[in-house]
Design brief:
single chain; elongated; 5 helices; alpha+beta; 3-stranded antiparallel sheet
Length: about 130
Amino acid sequence: MDNEKIISELNFKAVRSSGAGGQNVNKVSSKVVLSFDLNASQVLSEDEKLLLQTNIAARLTTENILILNCDEDRSQLKNKEIVIKRFLEIIKKGLFVPKVRKATKIPKSVIKKRIKDKKNISEIKQSRRKPNLE
């Protein structure tokens, strides 16, 4: 996956941010809304699209569009950088495929050791009992 190519497919929209900021809030559109259409992407293969659809399904809309917001900073440019960084992290985590676990056989020495320890503990417990006087 090429970051530059996938960033070129992103759509950005600047919106007026909510919250504190005085008169500046009413004038400046510093909040950045990123949207990425997964189905229309030319960079991602069909397999990668399917993987992302399953792994980040909770973040996608019904039309498979990923929408991210950022209004942390007063600067629109910084908010854009932050939201791109978040987007790339989400895509990276969504494309991660964990290794398949291989079942391994328990070594015979480990089984023998466990049985030996069980016998030893059993003998210790039997020696603690009161003797049978009959």
